[in-house]
Amino acid sequence: MKQTDIFISGGGVAGLTAAAAFGAAGFSVLIADPMPPITDEETDGADLRTTAFLQPARDFLIAAGLWDRLSPFAAPLQIMRIVDAGGETPEPRVTKDFDAADLGDLPFGWNLSNWLLRREMVARLEELPNVEFRTGVGFASMLTRTNEARVTLTDGTRISTKLVIGADGRNSPVRQAAGIAVKTNRLGQKAVTFAVAHEAPHDNVSTEVHRTGGPFTLVPLPDHEGKPCSAVVWMEDGPEAARLAALPVDEFNAEATLRSAGVFGPLTLASRRMVWPIISQIADSLNSERVALVAEAAHVVPPIGAQGLNMSLADMASLLDLAQANPNGLGNADMLKKYHRARHTDITLRVKGVDLLNRASQAENPLLRDLRAKGVEALYGLAPLRKTLMKMGLGAKG
Ligand SMILES: Cc1cc2nc3c(=O)[nH]c(=O)nc-3n(C[C@H](O)[C@H](O)[C@H](O)COP(=O)(O)OP(=O)(O)OC[C@H]3O[C@@H](n4cnc5c(N)ncnc54)[C@H](O)[C@@H]3O)c2cc1C
């Protein structure tokens, strides 16, 4: 029987970050994932999405020993621009800038490619002698008691641990084994993700263009072959997303440029296209005996406002704080009850808030679209409220 302080099920971006954070804090960690991580851009199946890490994520990544590795590749996000193009023609009719300078010296966040995150995170785990990363093998079952959990992996390995962290995604096997139910909202939407090159510089502005079907978001990337470049998340109703993803490149470029309301001039595809199903989901509880759920195992939100992984980092920060405050109580009922209490209300608020923004952005009806544009104007006009919204977007409690 192998002994470890913490067993992490799932080596996605969330699980890898958790392993680095708990490992750097001195806990022994065993992390397992049946899928070996793809750590380059070209290999089929590489995750070509990008993740915008918001301000509070940085301190956590520094403590985990990850930030120095990641920062050379990060594109800063200085301004969040909301564009409403919901009029008769797809042209900007309301444009509002939220500038990070209104809150302080730091940008709102930094954008990084997911495949690169995996590469740097795996390299970081190799530096930590108290962290073992097993790939090609996953969580199979567990038995919990008040003082430990016994986990069996798919290759028959048995592990005795104080804490099982379920970071194994939206269909989390750990969550199912713990008997924790979820509430799921299927939105009928999909996200097409890709990178584009454009003539106009992005000036570190992240732009969300609203018309119908969901937001079209351009997030700054470092220049590619001497040209300004942005990562795009284009949300649409399912069949429309499938049609867009299958279009010949020239036609796709033309449609993407039109849907972007021309904010950066003509857009040219600079990567493969990928399609992601969009759901909204929340686990009824973040804990059970010796088990804590984090990231998509606990909550899934549509990709709006970069909330997904940033909420996940807040989960891990909370869990790590509790573990460090009382290392002898690692994984006990008191710690896990406190974890649930610290996170569940904030998660519920954010899942509902992102849902609301998504519905407003999906609107087909011209009257609702006009209302949405007025809403953006009104919120923006109230400076104190604008600042509060910016702070909440970064992770401050509402
Ligand atoms: C289009 C799009 C754009 C996004 N942009 C942003 C953004 O800008 N900012 C942001 O904060 N968030 C963003 N998100 C959300 C973010 O991508 C997710 O929160 C994050 O990728 C989820 O990571 P995860 O590790 O929880 O889940 P996953 O990436 O799904 O990882 C789960 C892992 O568990 C493994 N697993 C499955 N079964 C087992 C088992 N039996 N045992 C062990 N392991 C198992 C899987 O192989 C997988 O590797 C975006 C999401 C989408 C769809």
UniProtKB/TrEMBL annotation:
Name of the protein in question: 2-octaprenylphenol hydroxylase
Source species, domain of life: Bacteria
Protein source organism: Octadecabacter ascidiaceicola
Entry-linked InterPro entries: FAD-bd, FAD/NAD-bd_sf, UbiH/COQ6, UbiH/COQ6_monooxygenase
Organism lineage string: Bacteria, Pseudomonadati, Pseudomonadota, Alphaproteobacteria, Rhodobacterales
Keyword Flavoprotein in record: yes
GO biological process: ubiquinone biosynthetic process
Cofactor(s) named in the record: FAD
Matching SUPFAM superfamilies: FAD/NAD(P)-binding domain
One Pfam family from the record: FAD_binding_3
NCBIfam families, per the entry: PRK07494.1, Ubi-OHases
Residue span(s) of domain FAD-binding: 4-345
Sequence similarity: Belongs to the UbiH/COQ6 family.
EC number(s) given by UniProt: 1.14.13.-
Gene Ontology molecular-function annotations: FAD binding; monooxygenase activity; oxidoreductase activity, acting on paired donors, with incorporation or reduction of molecular oxygen
Pathway entry: Cofactor biosynthesis; ubiquinone biosynthesis
